[in-house]
Write a structure and sequence with these properties.
mainly beta; binds FE2/S2 (inorganic) cluster; two-stranded antiparallel ribbon; 28% strand
Length: 201
């Protein structure tokens, strides 16, 4: 597991309890020199700076996560995780909510830190070429978008919101919703085919 993946996993364990904040606190830039203070506090670790660029803005009476200029995309890696970037809201199986701009999501079914990849795909020798064969049903957009990903218990990663799913071979699918396989058994990877019972999720 490389350092960046460890950091992504660590980042999911939000523990900030600012009673004024309906969402976890976070930091807006990869470059620590340009990170503004949130609530008068500086980030505590380099990991937080590198991983969380969600921060808050005031809309009416609410403080809400601000959309940043980060494309909502998923890179389907060969034999590895779904590398997702964007303005992501992740809802875990237990209902916990995390906001992030970068996540490595397990798609082999072997992670001990689901839904986050912990490099178990190497241990179990997961292989998938990463083909993206589903066609787009949405046009590319340039405005910042949000996407909500729900890790369904014993099921796939359902998503709602603009998402470009692509691989390094030039295949892509732009869509506004769907389900991504996270047990590694779908015949339509990276999408769920609803045929395997998702027993490995
Ligand atoms: S894809 Fe990395 S642990 Fe499953």
């Amino acid at each position: 597991m490389d350092d960046s993946n460890k950091a992504f996993a660590k980042n999911l364990n939000w523990s900030h309890t600012d009673p004024q904040a309906p969402y976890p606190q976070s930091n807006p830039n990869l470059d620590g020199s340009t990170v503004p203070e949130v609530g008068g506090e500086k980030p505590e670790s380099t990991d937080e700076i590198a991983l969380d660029r969600w921060f808050h803005e005031q809309r009416g009476n609410k403080r809400v996560p601000k959309r940043l200029e980060v494309a909502n995309e998923v890179l389907v890696t060969t034999g590895g995780p779904l590398k997702m970037t964007g303005n992501i809201t992740l809802i875990d199986e237990d209902g916990s909510v995390t906001h992030s701009n970068s996540l490595n999501l397990c798609r082999c079914g072997g992670s001990k830190s689901k839904p986050i990849c912990d490099d178990q795909h190497l241990e179990i020798e997961f292989f998938d070429g990463g083909a993206v064969s589903q066609l787009s049903d949405w046009m590319p957009v340039s405005r910042p978008q949000t996407v909500t990903v729900t890790a369904v218990k014993n099921g796939p990663l359902k998503f709602r919101g603009y998402l470009r799913i692509y691989n390094k071979k030039g295949q892509e699918c732009i869509t506004m919703g769907g389900a991504l396989c996270r047990c590694g058994k779908s015949s339509k990877k990276p999408f769920c085919d609803n045929k395997q019972g998702c027993a490995g999720c």
